[in-house]
Amino acid sequence: MEQEPTPIIELLGLILFLGSITFLLGAIFQIYILYKNRKSVWITLIVTVLTRILTVISSYFIWAFWHLPIDIMFLFLYLPAVLPELILSPLILKLFGNKMFRIKAERTIE
């Protein structure tokens, strides 16, 4: 008996279900950084949605080539989505001109 191919929509639905906590944590992180940098609501929405789309696509390809002897879930984190979140979230924030950590320059009194 042959296994029928799984449609891409079902695979994307499964990725969104498994990685929902990971994607939510990444979105909260980005929204917090954008809020601290006083960006507009539209920029915040665009950056967050763009990053989630790229993360879902990246996690699909990571999962497609997953040949590690460990499970793809670690507690509530979807491992194929953690790596793209860790790379893409700061990268896209940097591309949109946001600073993740503000360093306050100390003034010296002369």
Summarize the amount of helix as a percent range.
Answer: 55-70%
| pLDDT < 50 stretches | none
What overall geometry do the principal axes of the alpha carbons give?
A: elongated
Q: Structural class, from secondary structure content?
A: mainly alpha
* Strand order in space, largest sheet: 1-2
Number of strands: 2
Average residue-wise pLDDT: 78
* N-end to C-end Cα span: 84 Å
Radius of gyration: 18 Å
Helices and strands, in order, run as HHHEEH
How large a portion of the residues is in β-strands, by DSSP E? under 5%
**H/I helix tally:** 4
Sheet of most strands: 2 strands, antiparallel
Which properties best describe this structure?
110 residues; mainly alpha; two-stranded antiparallel sheet; 2 strands; 4% strand; transmembrane helix; transmembrane
Model description:
The protein has 110 residues and is mainly alpha-helical. The protein has a domain at 38-96. The chain contains 4 helices and 2 strands; from the N terminus they run αααββα. Strands 1-2 form a two-stranded antiparallel ribbon.
